[in-house]
Design goal:
elongated, 5 helices, 2 strands, 171 residues
Length: 171
């Protein structure tokens, strides 16, 4: 059975409001307890029902005080490090997605150039290439490949205990 969408607005009926508060408080305490048990983090919850009732503290006032004091003793930048409003959260998600987009675009460009290179190997001609961008990308790829080959040759020459001979020795 699917729950209906909750309309987030003040509950006018006092009896319904108290009942909702009690149910949601129990759910929130259960989640805090699960976080504490499963993740090994310090949690506390402080509830203020109304002006005439005392504060409700979980797990105990002493434990909650220790958690709050530990938080207050942090540097201000560490206190607010993960605090975000909706706008900041969306901005962070946009930044992450832009980074992923750039990564995917680079990967796609690499695949496009690789496909282009394979086509060149088959055709053995540049006559079908009409895009200056494709030719420049190919040039960059070939330059990078040449540098990698030269570096590998140097590495093999330096690491090899037998120097590469200029010719064969005859007996």
């Amino acid at each position: 059975m699917v729950r209906k969408k909750v309309n987030y607005q003040f509950i006018a009926d006092e009896c319904a409001r108290k009942r909702t508060f009690k149910k949601r408080k129990i759910g929130l305490l259960k989640k805090a307890s699960e976080l504490q048990t499963l993740c090994g983090v310090e949690t506390c919850a402080i509830f203020s029902n109304s002006t005439d009732s005392p504060l409700e503290v979980w797990p105990s006032p002493h434990d909650a005080y220790q958690v709050v004091e530990r938080f207050r003793n942090l540097a201000p930048e560490k206190q607010t490090y993960n605090m975000m409003d909706g706008e900041n959260l969306l901005q962070k998600n946009i930044t992450i997605m832009k980074g992923k987009l750039v990564t995917e675009e680079k990967k796609n460009q690499g695949l496009r150039i690789e496909q282009f290179m394979r086509k060149l190997l088959i055709d053995e001609s540049l006559d079908h290439v009409s895009s200056l961008v494709d030719l420049k990308d190919l040039n960059l790829l070939l330059d990078d490949s040449i540098e990698l080959v030269e570096k590998r040759v140097e590495d093999l020459e330096h690491s090899s205990s037998n120097p590469v001979a200029g010719g064969n020795k005859s007996v």
